[in-house]
Sequence to fold (96 residues):
Amino acid sequence: MEQTTTFGLWEAEPIGPFDSTARDEARRLLYEILSGLKDRHREILVLVVFEHQTVSEAAHALGLSLKAAERRLERAYAKFNQALRRYRAEDERRLR
Fold:
């Protein structure tokens, strides 16, 4: 029996057990990385990436100038990618 899931990153679609497991792991990793970010980095990423706000809209919501929001978003992406690279390196070590 197929199940349907919705999550901010994926549209609702039928998935099988293997897809479900992979998505559960991706979701767990996403939450882990986001929870490890400072609030100011997590907030801007969530607004722009997951809530699909423009940087200008996110800047207004956070009380920032557009330039400050752009810098914060750039830094947030860098921190997120750094954490993801760290996870991948640890995962590769575990698989050896």
